[in-house]
Amino acid sequence: MLTVQDVTCARGGIPVLSGINFEVAAVQALILRGPNGIGKTTLLRTLAGLQPALAGKITHPEDEAAYASHADGIKTALTVEENLKFWAEVYGNPIPESIWQAFDLADLQHRIAGTLSAGQKRRLGLARLGVVGRKVLFLDEPTVSLDGFSVRLFADWLQNTHLAAGGVAVIATHIDLGIDAPELELTPFRVASDKDGAADEAFL
Amino acid sequence: MLTVQDVTCARGGIPVLSGINFEVAAVQALILRGPNGIGKTTLLRTLAGLQPALAGKITHPEDEAAYASHADGIKTALTVEENLKFWAEVYGNPIPESIWQAFDLADLQHRIAGTLSAGQKRRLGLARLGVVGRKVLFLDEPTVSLDGFSVRLFADWLQNTHLAAGGVAVIATHIDLGIDAPELELTPFRVASDKDGAADEAFL
Amino acid sequence: MIALLWRDLRLAMRAGGGFGLGLAFFLIVVVLVPLGVGPQTELLSRIAPGIFWIASLLAALLSLDRIFALDFDDGSLALLATSPLPLEGAALAKAIAHWITTGLPLTIVAPALGFLLALAPEAYKYLLMSLLLGTPALSMIGTFGAALTVGLRRGGLLLSLLVLPLYVPTLIYGAEAVRRGAQGLDASGALILLGVITAGCFAVLPFATAATLRINLR
Amino acid sequence: MIALLWRDLRLAMRAGGGFGLGLAFFLIVVVLVPLGVGPQTELLSRIAPGIFWIASLLAALLSLDRIFALDFDDGSLALLATSPLPLEGAALAKAIAHWITTGLPLTIVAPALGFLLALAPEAYKYLLMSLLLGTPALSMIGTFGAALTVGLRRGGLLLSLLVLPLYVPTLIYGAEAVRRGAQGLDASGALILLGVITAGCFAVLPFATAATLRINLR
Amino acid sequence: MSIWEYANPKKFMAWTAPVLPVVFGGAALCLIVGLVWGFFFTPDDYRQGSTVKIIYLHVPAAFFAINAWIMMLVASLIWVIRRHHVSALAARAAAPVGLTMTLIALFTGAIWGQPMWGTYWAWDPRLTSFLILFLFYLGYIALWEAIEDPDTAADLTSVLCMVGSIFAILSRYAVNFWNQGLHQGASLSLDKEENVSNVFWQPLVICIVGFGLLFIGLVLLRTRTEIRVRRMRALEARARRA
Ligand code: HEM
Ligand SMILES: Nc1ncnc2c1ncn2[C@@H]1O[C@H](COP(=O)(O)OP(=O)(O)OP(=O)(O)O)[C@@H](O)[C@H]1O
Ligand SMILES: Nc1ncnc2c1ncn2[C@@H]1O[C@H](COP(=O)(O)OP(=O)(O)OP(=O)(O)O)[C@@H](O)[C@H]1O
Ligand SMILES: [Mg+2]
Ligand SMILES: [Mg+2]
Predict the structure, then answer these.
(1) Is the CB–ligand 2 distance for residue A16 below 6 Å?
(2) With contact defined as beta carbons under 8 Å apart, do B128 and B68 qualify?
(3) For residue E55, how far is its CA from the centre of ligand 1 (angstroms)?
(4) What's the E58 CA to ligand 1 centre distance in angstroms?
């Protein structure tokens, strides 16, 4: 469903990862591992199409990807429900009723998002993924600030709702999510600092 | 060194935790545990003096506290070194040379902070604690976005540099930091919803 | 697109006043001018058409930097860019929301404030018409400028610097229409040109804005 | 306090232009007025003193919302509040930094722009002096306003609404001083009052600002 | 029992309930008597003709537009010093009433200005300072509306009210400095009654008393509403946590 062939991705004009190859079939997830600063965020942004790959090819079904970044895109002045509803409308879907249970938001449904705690806000950010109705998810450290219970809640949703329905997910994380998925350690793909390939190469 | 007697703290005018008692002696840390939304951030802000406690008493040595919030206070337009230097000057200290090693920032010293990855930024945020020279630290989820190696780096610094020099720390976290410190589970202190004590009580 | 428009309007309403504030700023500029320039009625009535247009322009300007900045900071913009909504549509929705929250109320109220600057009675009609035709262009141009500066901290002033020259034609035709109206001359030429500018802006700038956003999100 | 001042100045320089932009905005407003009002020299020279002051005021206004907003959003403000630096000192440093980045360059350049609005030759001296005495008050008052609205999204316009009436005395005395200078009258009264306002603002407002910040950080 | 007891929300609700009809009744009585007397039973002014009668609306409104701000200042000080919720809410309640009074004064003045000065509006110092007062009201109300947390809003608006008062006075002097103006001087001082002769004076005083009672009544009513809103919020919050 998602194929990545020999991709090089760059941040600030400097290539950080190169020669990345993988494939994720439906009903599968892939976990990206690597120390801070290796380039997980850069890779995910490239996969999501927010920045071009320096080299290589990324294929996934047209219009089937959604991205969740470090930042949540939550409007603090709107209620939890209004926030979700907005994204549901943008993606042209209804809000599935099950979402409130799945992310433990039932009690918070009518709260102004600005008054949520860090973890509650994150849960709301993740719930957005449940309303976009996309098959291919790119998730950047989705469980930051979540407590153990909420991590499990999210892993359950991912496993039993998203993946089970034929979805795919690429997840960068430092913790153990408790879902069974292959892991890709990015360290071997780090671009040696003296190697060529910068965008400004033309000037060298 | 830090005594908390029967403290009640409130968020948005509504009490969230009450009857909290603990004491932390020098060379000790205390880890706050509790699910998302229980009130860890609220308690830490109250301890740091950013908001008043509804009831109870908090004592710690005058002018010896520093607080680290979910947000890092990093200026993205300044370099890593300039960021640290600013805080060092505000607190009237020099930057200890060891800080660059302790938080693995030596390579990043002259980088513009805006180009750091999430985890690198967090390391910079934590390094700030090393320059303020304060004995009492209130840390709110300090290890968010950090990889395993950096978490250990931070735990080492806390144990061997900060605490060993007679410091004290109160840390809210969802993960296992690997330092040996007593834990305080906050769930029992949650304010029962029908209890009085709201700031708006006068109106009821 | 409608969803985005509604959300933006709702946000504008929620976040303290919304509609009222663009207006309030306009009012205040109109009040400040006599305070700065002095109270002579005859002088004021001569500069009134220009001042009204400059005040509208500044009121529009002041809220421009918020068009994309908040969405950029909290990540919504990146999420929007990867959503099925085309960015062109998003740009258009943002411009329309900006106009509804600043341009429109200002257009409605401006004639009521004419007396503060001793505007000639004949000019009221032209003030209303010129603002109605011209302020949408201000919002659309401003949206484009906001997209150009979205990633920059302190983009606010740079934004003004970029946008104000783009505002010049609108300002000149707008003020000229009102001035001619005040003097009883034929103002239809200026009004038509104003309409043409607005139509042109809405035809071209959403695409430029979307392209700019894509680049800034990289 | 010095550290904060330096940091803010450095940030202003780094973040796209800094000094240049407040100035550029001022320049543009001064250019727009002839475009809006029309090119008659005699008319322009009569309104010049007022326009210069209004332009300074708006240039100051436009960058106010950034004084605390960025520090609030990234958490620096909470960290500063728990630091040994008293918030009063922080408020003062912020106001001074704002003045150095907007008021000061504007004061230096304004006389050079006098010709654009056909300012009377005698008035140049008074323009310089009144801006030098008055713009610090604009920065200090603005800092107070920024502290009031720091937690609010879209505080920008509310900020203007709150701050502009507070700017009225400064504006009136400032413009009056220049106008009197232009007409060869005695302007010392207005200048002295301007100085008194500035001194008063710096004596009182840092405390009000710090109190406001503390409330907003709660 | 100290006087502050009456500022307890519950007590306040209790004692205002019976007082309110009395105040409104008195206001209606005074206004009817004053206005009818003023409009129908006083002669036309020899210079101004019947337009002079607008004074019965104009002057009381202007008077209470200023006094409302002073009341807000006092209430803000009480809130800051003693932290009585009711006083903060009373300040909040007074603002729109003061704003309305300001608007009435401005409008009646503008209407009056057309026959008297040949223009609806002139940048006369007194008129100008009223316009500035209007802006202060707007800003004050907008700040209340913009802030979520009621206590924070009360604190911040109090600070604004205090700082604003200083600047309002400064502005008054500034506009005076600026030019002399067309508007009458104060004619309501008790010792000299130069501009307003006796025939106009008596109904005018009744009208002022009527406006005063109306003002008090409206502020009490609005304060009660604000208290109810707060009570509702507190109950909602409690229910939510249940
Ligand atoms: C928009 C126009 C006007 C405004 C904003 C205005 C404002 C005011 C204000 C603020 C006061 C109260 C002053 C105080 O209590 O110290 C006042 C009083 C008064 N106004 Fe006006 N005025 C306007 C037009 C006029 C006109 C056209 C006349 C008639 C010629 C007039 C006659 C008076 C008189 C007789 C008083 C009572 C004098 C006193 O008690 O001070 N006003 N007006
Ligand atoms: N503008 C830039 N110029 C130079 N280097 C940059 C720039 N932006 C980012 N980098 C570097 O690129 C690398 C990749 O960053 P990225 O954010 O992708 O890391 P990450 O794997 O997501 O890390 P984390 O786990 O900390 O989030 C980092 O080392 C970072 O310092
Ligand atoms: N303005 C407000 N009004 C009502 N409730 C609020 C408000 N602000 C916060 N809360 C609630 O107060 C509780 C405590 O929040 P706090 O941020 O202290 O939690 P936390 O323990 O730090 O959680 P996390 O682990 O998610 O960071 C949360 O349930 C939150 O929803
Ligand atoms: Mg990352
Ligand atoms: Mg928290």
Answers:
(1) yes
(2) yes
(3) 8
(4) 7
| Residue E8 within a domain | no
Nearest CB to D162 within list E139, E152, E155: E139
CB contact under 8 A, B36 and A12: no
Count of positions (residues) in chain A? 204
Q: Could you tell me the CA-to-CA distances from C18 to A74, C22, D154, D156 in Å, in that order?
A: 19, 8, 8, 11
Instruction: Give the pLDDT score at E191.
Output: 43
Give the integer Cα–Cα distance in Å for C196 and C189. 11
What is the domain-level CATH number for residue E166? 1.20.120
Q: What is the pLDDT of residue A203?
A: 58
- Specify whether the CB–CB gap between C183 and C119 falls below 8 A: no
pLDDT digits (tens, 9 = 90+) for C174-184: 999 998 988 88
Three-state DSSP state, E238: helix
DSSP annotation of A71: S
- For C135-149, write each residue's pLDDT tens digit: 999 999 999 999 998
Interface contacts (A, C; CB < 8 Å)? 68
d(CA D18, CA E218): 50
**Residue A8 in 3-state DSSP?**
strand
Q: Residue B29: how many CA atoms within 13 Å on its side-chain side?
A: 27
Provide the number of structural domains found in chain E.
Answer: 1
Nearest by CB to residue E149, choosing from B12, B198, B203, is: B12
User: How many Å apart are CA D147 and CA D123, to the nearest integer?
Assistant: 35
Q: Which domain holds residue E102?
A: 23-42+52-183+191-241
Q: Let me know: does E152 contact E110? Beta carbons within 8 Å.
A: no
**Any idea which residue has 């005859």 for tokens?**
C42
> What is the residue-wise DSSP string for B161-172?
IIITTT-EEEEE
Q: Which residues contact C136 (CB under 8 A, 6 or more apart)?
A: C95, C99, C103, C198, C201, C202
